[in-house]
Specification:
Oligomer: heterodimer
Number of domains of chain B: 2
Largest sheet of chain B: 6 strands, mixed
Structural class of chain A: alpha/beta
Radius of gyration of chain B: 33 Å
Shape of chain A: globular
Shape of chain B: elongated
Structural class of chain B: alpha+beta
Strand content of chain B: 15-25%
Number of helices of chain A: 7
Number of strands of chain B: 11
Strand content of chain A: 15-25%
CATH class of chain A: Alpha Beta
Keywords (chain B): Membrane, Transmembrane, Transmembrane helix
Helix content of chain B: 40-55%
CATH topology of chain A: Rossmann fold
CATH superfamily of chain A: P-loop containing nucleotide triphosphate hydrolases
Strand order of the largest sheet of chain B: 4-3-7-8-6-9
Radius of gyration of chain A: 17 Å
Number of strands of chain A: 9
Number of domains of chain A: 1
Protein name (chain B): ABC3 transporter permease protein domain-containing protein
Strand order of the largest sheet of chain A: 6-7-8-3-9
Number of helices of chain B: 12
Largest interface: A-B, 24 and 21 residues
CATH architecture of chain A: 3-Layer(aba) Sandwich
Distance between the termini of chain A: 22 Å
Chain lengths: ~210, ~400
């Protein structure tokens, strides 16, 4: 699955990005299958805005975002839901768990949408990232680090061709980052997928094929 | 796609904020509105059946009037001047409010009634006939054919009252019940003395509508043809009218213009009917209003539920749940509630009809035991509209 960006200008950032050189804004970009892309985005350059645009969560922009032939602004609600369950998964910067559900329920409600990952697999991954003991805790009672690990696992509970990550490890220490990147790498490989990771500073979480400065 | 655990989780996210009290209030509002709507349709339908239907409650719906030509000083000397010509009948038929016209034909040949043989009581007996459709109720043995010796009679109930309350007490005679009168046989001699025929007459019924002695029309026709004087014909002296609303000014003007006499007592039914129509339509308007309010309350309750679950809905869409699936989930939760309300309303309405039919029977009115087509049609239409509104409000609110 190919991602094409054409002359993107997010309306709220129009003035801010005018005259700046950017690898994405106001330009044309094509990302090919299985690319591992790092988007380096200093604060305020529209990192989260970009991820939300790619995921179809906002359409206050000029230009086009196309996943293969699906243009996000023109896609129907059903087409976008389809894309989100089969082709593109995301780890949000702000985690976005259901605070009133337990860690397990947060994962289960995602898992049962496609039923492509077994419950046992989920248990193993929780174990791997060290949140197995938080299984029955309400999401709102979890620490940010724990929430982030649950959010990472949730993003892996569906088939995908692209994994979008927005500062995915901002609340994790080195040990946990290593565990998470290992898990993500494995699952991305299993899915034969590409990834886009957006973060503030340079990093070597994954072997990137391309680095773009936003 | 049916997955129990997923539905439990969705319910936890989307319906947990539901207050039980509000749910009940919304359902009761819908129930009251729906039930009143159905009941008002039921009332309207029942009165319609009573007033214009083909059941045996004719006297409620239509007013029967007997008209005659007024006897005045100028026409009192002329034989036949107060008879109705075919042209007269025709013009009455076309008069406003008139639904049907029947000729009241009297006997134009001598008739004597005798009781207790030749030595007993004997009197001239004026007879009349009307078409069967103008009878209050047609007795089972209301039939006469030439050659038959048995002559059924319908007597005005006023005659019996006159005898029982005026004549019998003053003469020291026993009072008679309707059934005892029916068991009496009287001999009737019809025709001029040289060719008279004798019949055995029985009272087979009483009429409130017609103030005379009625025999089957076939008998009068036979007698008038056989014994009647040539030329006197069988022109009716009075007409019986079935009218929709004799209080209508156009009808009363017609009667006055033609100088006909009539009995204005009969107007009372039309007044009751007018009141019933006002009550039924007022109930209908009120019921529509309440149904509208009930529906509004229920739809607002749904929208409130969805608005409260807004955050969860947004996040569910973000993790890949489609609006269509979520709408379906909500529809499956709310539509059964609507159906429960509708079934309860319909049940109550059917119950009311059963009880009302039973009570009406005691009053001598025949109502259908079960509600008829208009009620089911109203139920279907109102349920259809309700379901469309509910589904639209759910899909609309979720898409936002």
């Amino acid at each position: 699955m190919q991602l094409s960006l054409h002359q993107l200008v997010p309306l709220p950032l129009r003035e801010k990005i005018a005259g700046r050189s950017s690898g994405i804004w106001e330009g044309d970009l094509v990302l090919n299958e299985k690319d591992h892309v790092f988007i380096k985005a200093p604060s305020g350059t529209g990192k989260t805005t970009l991820i939300h645009m790619l995921y179809g969560m906002r359409d206050d922009y000029e230009g086009t975002v196309k996943w293969d032939n699906l243009e996000m602004k023109r896609g129907s609600a059903a087409e976008i839901s389809q894309l989100r369950t089969k082709d593109v998964s995301v780890i949000f910067q702000d985690m976005r768990l259901f605070p009133e559900l337990t860690a397990w329920e947060n994962l289960d409600i995602k898992r049962r949408l496609t039923n492509t990952i077994t419950a046992q697999q989920v248990t193993n991954w929780m174990d791997e990232l060290g949140v197995a003991d938080k299984r029955l805790s309400l999401a709102r009672k979890l620490s940010y680090g724990e929430q982030q690990r649950v959010a990472i696992i949730r993003a892996l509970l569906q088939p995908f061709k692209w994994l979008l990550m927005d500062e995915p490890f901002s609340h994790l220490d080195h040990v946990n980052i290593a565990k998470a990147t290992k898990l993500i790498s494995e699952v991305v490989k299993q899915n034969n997928a590409g990834m886009i990771l957006a973060d503030l500073d340079d990093n070597n979480f994954f072997p990137y094929t391309q680095t773009i400065v936003l | 796609m049916s997955d129990k655990t997923r539905n439990i989780l969705l319910r936890k996210l989307l319906l947990r904020n539901n207050s039980k009290g509000r749910l009940w209030a919304a359902m009761i509002a819908l129930f009251v509105g729906n039930t009143l709507l159905l009941l008002s349709v039921l009332i309207w339908w029942n009165f319609n059946e009573l007033l214009y239907g083909k059941t045996e409650n004719d006297s409620l719906g239509s007013t029967f009037l007997i008209i005659g030509k007024k006897v005045t000083n100028s026409n009192m000397g002329q034989p036949g001047a107060t008879l109705f010509t075919p042209a007269d009948v025709d013009s009455v038929n076309k008069a406003p409010q008139v639904q049907s016209v029947g000729a009241i034909v009297s006997n134009h040949f001598p008739v004597y009634a005798m009781m207790g043989g030749d030595m007993g009581f004997a009197t001239d007996l004026p007879l009349e006939s009307v078409p069967d459709r103008f009878l209050d109720s047609k007795p089972a043995d209301w039939d006469w054919q030439p050659g038959s010796r048995d002559l059924p009679i319908i007597m005005s109930s006023q005659f019996l009252d006159l005898y029982n309350y005026v004549f019998a007490p003053s003469q020291g005679l026993p009072q008679l019940s309707e059934s005892s009168v029916k068991s009496l046989a009287l001999n009737v001699k019809a025709g001029p003395p040289d060719m008279a025929e004798t019949y055995t007459a029985h009272v087979v019924g009483f009429s409130d509508r017609i103030g005379s002695v009625l025999v089957p029309q076939a008998f009068i026709d036979y007698g008038n043809q056989k014994y009647g004087k040539q030329g006197s014909g069988v022109a009716p002296s009075q007409l019986i009218l079935k009218t929709k609303d004799p209080s209508d000014i156009k009808f009363t003007e017609f009667i006055q213009r033609k100088n006909y006499t009539t009995n204005s007592q009969n107007l009372r039914w039309s007044r009751i009917r007018a009141i019933v129509e006002v009550v039924a339509s007022a109930t209908g308007v009120l019921a529509l209003l309440l149904m509208g309010i009930g529906t509004l309350v229920f739809v607002l309750f749904i929208e409130l539920t969805i608005a409260k679950a807004h955050q969860s809905l947004t996040l569910l869409k973000e993790i890949g749940y489609s609006p269509g699936y979520l709408s379906g989930f909500m529809v499956k939760r709310f539509v059964p509630l609507v159906l429960v309300v509708v079934i309860f309303s319909a049940g109550i309405t059917v119950g009311v009809q059963v009880v009302a039919a039973d009570m009406a029977k005691a009053q001598g009115l025949a109502l259908h035991t079960l509600p008829g087509l208009p009620l089911w049609a109203a139920l279907t239409v109102s349920t259809g509209i309700l379901l469309v509104l509910v589904v639209r409000s759910i899909t609309g609110a979720i898409r936002e």
